[in-house]
């Protein structure tokens, strides 16, 4: 049994190509200092988990609050306004917000920038005998009045042991990996 | 202490331009002991009486904190349109109280039906064990949530938050989302529980998050060799995570103004 586990982990270490840094774009014409008050819109989920967008949004909010770089619009207030605007504009929840909707939300919440996100992967992936988390998503900070993209980042990673045989440094859960990726993504912001 | 106040007085009087001119006068309210959080509440700390002077003199104050964080000297200053200035001093003794914290129901984004309630109770136990907080009794919180018709505490608006904080008399709320609360079968180690949550400590007054963290725990975090040290019980794992959260919240509390609690 131990031998099988060992072989499985060696296989994982060979197969898993988990280390790819975030790819980001920062609009060279944007004044990042201007974006003090920021809101986080509902994330679109392209993964099988219908709640993946919500989970990732909550993790991102937690990380943004920790960083204290922005004055975040309280999430209760933001979601209430977003729901109202979507209803007026006939935009159902998975549909991305258009520039008119963004401007309307900004006007009502006082947000200068709005973060929108798309979750591409949020699932457990079987590798050999074991399952590892796989998370990939992209984030955008858009200038709320104009809808212009200020910052764009894509991250994705598969969890797994950092060292073959030993399970030190292993990322076990989807949320844990998502938290790690949120930190990586936000690290490219300023 | 009198010596320190005397030094401040002497220093202020020697400032150029700060001279009490007749007939403008200012009489400060007496020394008062107040809860630390009420320091800025002038209805409690009171205002000085201004007399004389030209026109309607303007009155302002600034605070000088002494005897680390427990004694504040409030320097009141009045000035009139003739250029006269009057100054007086008021001593405020700050009383620190153990912060009252309420743990609110967690948003459930996990596939477990009872996970949020279990973790909420574990968080309450962990916070209740600490001497750094005064935990609002869970039954009182449950009752207030029900009567206040708060469906999703993590998304409360200002009105709901204000109403709830008055009902339970809390200064801080612990709110959050349970992201994951499940057990998976590991082919080698057996059942392995996993818990993830995003928590916030919010100020009840304005909803500002003063602490936020995503916490994760997995049963085999403590495994060191071939399933030795694995935690199989999800409730025990939840208790461990709750204690970690309570510890982090306590650390954050001590760094907040008016929340360091010398008992």
Overview of the structural elements:
The complex is a heterodimer of chains A (190) and B (263). Chain A has five helices and seven strands, in the order H-E-E-E-H-E-H-H-E-E-E-H. Chain A has 190 residues and is of the alpha/beta class. Chain A has a single domain (21-186), classed as Rossmann fold (3-Layer(aba) Sandwich), CATH 3.40.50.10610. In chain A, strands 1, 2, 3, 4, 5, 6 and 7 form a seven-stranded mixed β-sheet that branches. In chain A, helix 3 crosses helix 4 (99-109). Chain A is globular, with a radius of gyration of 19 Å. In chain A, 45% of the residues are buried. With 263 residues, chain B is of the alpha/beta class. Chain B has two domains: 2-95, Immunoglobulins (Immunoglobulin-like); 100-254, 3-Layer(aba) Sandwich (Rossmann fold), CATH 3.40.50.10610. Chain B is built from six helices and twelve strands. In chain B, strand 5 (71-79) and strand 6 form a beta hairpin. At the A-B interface, helix 2, helix 3 and helix 5 of A face strand 10, strand 11 and strand 12 of B.
CATH architecture of the largest domain in chain B: 3-Layer(aba) Sandwich
**At the third CATH level, what is the topology name of the largest domain in chain B?**
Rossmann fold
Main β-sheet of chain A: number of strands, strand sense, barrel status?
Answer: 7 strands, mixed
* CATH fold label of chain A: Rossmann fold
The mean pLDDT of chain B is: 85
Query: Between the first and last Cα atoms of chain B, what is the distance in angstroms?
Result: 22 Å
Structural class of chain A: alpha/beta
Count of discrete structural domains of chain A: 1
What is the CA–CA distance across the termini of chain A?
A: 48 Å
Assembly state: heterodimer
Number of strands of chain A: 7
Q: Using CB atoms under 8 Å apart, which protein chain pair has the greatest interface?
A: A-B, 30 and 32 residues
CATH architecture type of chain A? 3-Layer(aba) Sandwich
